[in-house]
Amino acid sequence: MTTTTSTEPPSWPSPTTAGSFSQKSASISRLDLTSSESISTVVPISSPIDPSAQLDIHADPTNHAALDLSFHSTAVNASPQTPHLANSFVTATTTTTTTMLAQLPKPINKNINVPLDLGTDTVHGSSLPPPTTTIVSALTRQLINASNIPIEHSLQASASASASAAARQKEVIQPDRSSFYPSESSRIFGRPSVDSTDHKDTHDQEIVSTSSFSIEDSAIAYTEMDMSMTSPTRHTKSPPTSASSSLTSTGRRRMIAESSMILSGGAGQNAVNLGSGIGGGALSPAWSMTSIPRDISANYCRSGDDSTAPAIAPMDEKLYGLVDRYGFLVEEGRTPTADRKNGQTSTISSSQTSVRGTQEAKKQAKIVAKEQERSLKWARMAKQYTSEANEIEYSFSDHQKFVSRVYKGIPDCWRAAAWSHLITKRSAGFDPNIRQIYHDMLEISSPEEEQIDLDIPRTMHGHIMFRTRFGPGQCALFKVLKAYSNYNNRVGYCQGMASVVATMLTFFDAEKTFVLLAQLFDRYNINELVVPGFPALFEAFFIQEELTKIYAPNVFQALETMGIATPSYASRWYITLYSAGVVPYRTLLRIWDILLLEGFDWLYFMALALLKYHEQTLVLNNFERTMEMLNAKMDIQDDERLLKIARRLFRQAKQTGIVAKLKRTYAAKMKQPA
Amino acid sequence: MAHTYDFLLKFLITGDSGTGKSCLLHQFVENKFKEGATHTIGVEFGSRIVTIGKNQVKLQIVSCDSAGQERFRSVTRSYYRGAAGALLVYDISNRNSFTSIAKWIADARKLAGADIALMLVGNKLDLEDREVSYLEASRFAQENEMTFLETSALTGEGVEETFLKCGRAILTKIETGQVDPERPGSGIQYGDSSLRRISQKSRPARQKSLCC
Asked: What SUPFAM superfamilies has UniProt attached to this entry (chain A) (predicted)?
């Protein structure tokens, strides 16, 4: 049960890797992460204002697509102490990498939705219209909202860069969120603090042309990159295949991985926003460990005090070359077949033939183009507003079009906005002080802390955000779970909630996650699922069995014959809302899209659909195979088919009102004395 | 082709949260440590055929991970029924997990019957900060008529032996007549090959309900 991260030795990239990678003229940004000294000085989480880090961003004027984001901590290039850095490419340590990778791409992701990918450049270039004013402004706001950059700066920057008059009109000064998280922006962009004590080596650096780096610059750089990415003319010089074919497999994998991170709707936003939950120790009393006497809490609430920061083993560089588009680590040499369909997976082994590569590229191009098209539709459908908590939110009409688009799958870049909308919509009249409650609840120690602490290291361990013990992801997870256990004493903490929260944390910051979690559990009846005694769980078993009898008699018969009782596999399905590795992550997101739209009843039909999807295996009556299949992560090759099954059954049931009938039957059954 | 076996024994792994139950199962079935384990809600399931004496024995193992949290015990209790043996796991570096073994013994004897073969397993032998001494645990096991072993699911030390010992104990109980494999819910079934041998016996029902 020991965590594996701590034992891995640092691994530096080979020069060939770096060389091949830097040659590329593809669409993605190049991340130069250089950190040669103690991590704690670089990691934003442990140090609100990073004393030694400098972020050097400059757009290459000759090639708009190439953008260097160099992150230096101390001596870099020709520094004799660090010969391995001579080629100035990537060296990074666990948390730095995690946070940097996750943080930097985020605004990009927000701004340009999907259009950046490998080998599919022409598709974007030609098919994507130049960003319309509304989209630019809407997305700029989203960027601002998500990254907590003082708004006036970013708007200015983006407006000037995109030279959009209309965007400039929208340059209203919004309430400055940075007052709530004063150090946020500086941490995000690694702005060096003036009183830095660790600048002794900066004069040695030949690279650093801009030793001081301001927020405006960064926003401009991002926007420029944005423009270059979306410009229809940018690929006229380089054919679409050149980028991928000229790369070694390693370089290519890196590229894919990085673009995956950028594309990922979740991971990016999240890590930036995580900052709001962690690190601002001096700002919010909730984070200061002095107010929380318990040891467990203290581990998760380190706030800015470097000396107490846990030793984080440097992460193997290859790790972040091996994450899929959602930030999950993929074992080397193994392409998750389940995730391949949706493209952007990170491992494409060199042994695969080029024919296959081209096909795959084409397939990816199609997927990306489609998602891009959808994103634009969503952008047109979205209405932006500022919530009471001064957050930029989006609302969508209840029109049938919206519903059918949710069923088709919310585009990754819109998922956070849409989920927030769906949950909030159901939560009219919900406690308006919920945000304050979150902070109050963090102050109280919870009897569940021990169990939460036990479960955190084994929650979504494969995700890059939650790998590091007491890292930012785990800290946020702890805080939300602890706050919720205090907030809702009846529920407390139930095993399984951790993965629900972790999934939400890949989209929202800790505070927002808590707010949405409270609403979700209350308004979707999920509290009854996890409260001791599990009333809704047992009801769900009953309903699922009855539904299986009606809609999938063969499956029901097979399960009966094998003597497999529903609780032996479905407990996990319901309690974790399918999030604890029941299905691939991308499938999970699709399931949640509809869950948030339709409500709890959807869960029954999902269970039914999963059984029906695997009907052919189930009817073989092989007890062991079935048990192993139902209790492991299910291999879902075809999301559409699975969701189609569920939707069809759900519609039928809606018409007949069968679920309500079964609920009444169950209630009557419960009333009878045993 | 499916392997044939003489007996099928149903095992249960239980114990406090985070003691390494599913890692033990994984180590035994797959012969490797389970990296990046998740806490399983519900049960985990695995099986393996081993040779005990002259018999090919299939061990069908259910690990009740979520039994670690109190509220799940109502759900997982049903798994005890139909188990021939149970491994009660504690973490040698966590005293609390050892203290609650008494509770797990009571549960097992009450729900599965007094005949269930119990093994006390001190897991995480690879850790250095031991809180429960071998002597103490061994004494405790003796008092409660259990076999005791220490294991490391990480290195695999003692894992195989634990399952084999438990299987052997059950086979001995069958031989001495202490346990009747024909009794429904005994957690023991004759396998395909023994069926052929013991033709005079009526064919036992195929796998009965594992739980509930």
From this structure: Ypt/Rab-GAP domain of gyp1p (SSF47923)
Whole-angstrom Cα distance, residue A643 to residue A46? 42
Q: Largest alpha-carbon pair distance within chain A?
A: 82
> Which stretch of A135-139, A151-155, A184-188, A517-521 has the lowest confidence by average pLDDT?
A184-188
CB-based contact A348:A75 (threshold 8 Å): no
Question: A279 pLDDT exceeds 60?
Answer: no
Hey, what amino acid is at B94? N
The residue among B1, B17, B33, B39 with the most chain A CBs within 10 A of its CB, best to mutate, is: B39
Angle, in degrees to the nearest 10, between helices A105-112 and A265-277: 130
Q: Across the interface, do A461 and B75 touch by the CB < 8 Å criterion?
A: no
Question: What does residue A338 show for φ and ψ, rounded to 5 degrees?
Answer: -65, -30
Nearest to A495 by CA among B38, B97, B13: B38
pLDDT digits (tens, 9 = 90+) for A370-388: 999 999 999 999 999 998 8
Q: Domains of chain A, with CATH numbers?
A: 358-429 (no CATH), 431-524 (1.10.8.270), 525-673 (1.10.472.80)
Per-position DSSP letters for A478-511, written without gaps between them: HHHHHHHHHH-TTT---TTHHHHHHHHHTTS-HH
The per-residue pLDDT for B76 is 72
SS3 state at A307: helix
Query: What are the counts of helices (DSSP H) followed by strands (DSSP E) for chain A?
Result: 33, 5
* CA distances (Å), origin B150, targets A3, B14, B146, B157: 21, 15, 13, 8
Hey, are the CB atoms on A631 and B40 less than 8 Å from each other? yes
The whole-number average pLDDT for the span A32-50 is 33
In this prediction, residue A583 carries a pLDDT of: 92
CA distances from A406 to A369, A401, A414 (A): 18, 9, 11
Strand partners, A384: A394
Instruction: Tell me the pLDDT tens digit for each residue of B68-90.
Output: 677 887 777 777 878 899 999 99
pLDDT of B108 above 90: no
**Which of A101, A71, A23 lies closest to A259 in space, CA to CA?**
A101
For residue B66, pLDDT beyond 90 = no
d(CA A293, CA A189): 33
CA distance B131 to chain A (A): 17
Mean pLDDT of A627-639: 88
- Domains of chain B (ranges, CATH numbers): 7-200 (3.40.50.300)
Establish if A533 touches chain B: CB-CB under 8 angstroms: yes
- Give CA–CA dist A280/B67, Å, rounded: 37
What is the average pLDDT across A512-525?
A: 95
Q: How far is CA A141 from CA A145, A371, A381, B191, in A?
A: 6, 21, 16, 67
**Runs of H (alpha helix) within A382-433:** 400-408, 412-426
B41 contact residues in A (CB cutoff 8 A) = 495-496, 571-572, 575-576, 580
ipTM of model: 0.83
- The verdict on a CB contact (< 8 Å) between A575 and B41 is yes
**Which carries the bigger pLDDT value, residue A674 or residue B54?**
B54
Q: Which residues of B touch A565 (CB under 8 A)?
A: 78, 209-212
Interval B121-143 mean pLDDT: 94
Of the listed ranges A56-65, A568-577, A616-625, the least confidently predicted one is A56-65
**Residue B135 neighbours by CB under 8 Å, 6+ apart:** none
d(CA A207, CA A88) in angstroms, rounded, equals 9
- Counting every residue written for chain B, the total comes to 212
Tell me if A643 sits within 8 A of A594, measured CB to CB: yes
Euclidean distance between CA atoms B41 and A439, whole angstroms: 29
Cβ(A51)–Cβ(A284) below 8 Å: no
